[in-house]
Amino acid sequence: MKFLSSVLLVLMLAGCATPYKSNGLAGGYSDLQIAENMFKVSFRGNGFTNLQRARDFALLRGAELALGNNYKYFVIIEEANEVENQAHRAPVEAHTRGHVYDSGSFNATTRFTGGQTYNIATPSSTNTILCFKEKPENHPHAYNAESVYKNMTAKYDIVEWDDIKANF
Fold first, then answer.
1. Which residues does 145 contact at the CB level (< 8 Å), separation at least 6?
2. Based on CB atoms within 10 Å of each CB, which residue in 1, 14, 85, 162 is the most buried?
3. Rounded distance between C-alpha atoms, residue 26 and residue 45, angstroms
4. What is the pLDDT of residues 37-72, one digit of tens each?
5. How far apart are the C-alpha atoms of 104 and 4, rounded to whole Å?
6. Where residue 143 falls among pLDDT bands split at 50, 70, 90?
7. Can you give the pTM of this predicted structure?
8. Residue-wise over 106-119: b if at least 16 C-beta within 10 A, else e?
9. Distance of alpha carbon 83 from its chain centroid, rounded?
């Protein structure tokens, strides 16, 4: 019962899919600048986050980094997506109730609870991006950072760019 209570508490605190935020206990984004115009961007979700959301948020963080460093375009030169599955089993508990009669006989019943297995899938997406001031001719799949930013913030109802710019 303690395990199940703990799981329920964590789920209530997490509430829902990982929001778009810096990496924390329930997931989020992280990034690392590798070169002047190259970044490694990751987003890790929780058990309520699907892989598409993790991919979108890694893409959004790439757009933010490009814009925040005065680049207009970026390309993904390496991408890795995965879903980690973890099985958690609730402990089995036995509850016995009984009655002893005056004659010395007794009657007892035992009820077992728990033992369920819960699968928790946590997705993550990691992109290595290369940023450009002008649209690169040799990369036909270059992302327009401003377009990606606007589309993703609208899709997930995330705060505006002016609020994000303050963090750079």
1. 62, 63, 66, 67, 71, 72, 73, 74, 131
2. 14
3. 7
4. 999 999 999 999 999 999 999 999 999 999 999 999
5. 38
6. very high
7. 0.75
8. eeeeeeeeeeeeee
9. 10
Q: Which residues contact 126 (CB under 8 A, 6 or more apart)?
A: 40, 41, 42, 43, 58, 79, 80, 81
Six token digits for residue 133: 């001031």
Q: pLDDT grade, residue 15 (50/70/90)? A: low
Q: What is the CA radius of gyration of the chain?
A: 24
Q: Which residues contact 30 (CB under 8 A, 6 or more apart)?
A: 22, 23, 41, 42, 43, 44
Indicate if the pLDDT at residue 10 is higher than 70.
no
Contact 19, 43 (CB under 8 A): no
d(CA 30, CA 8): 27
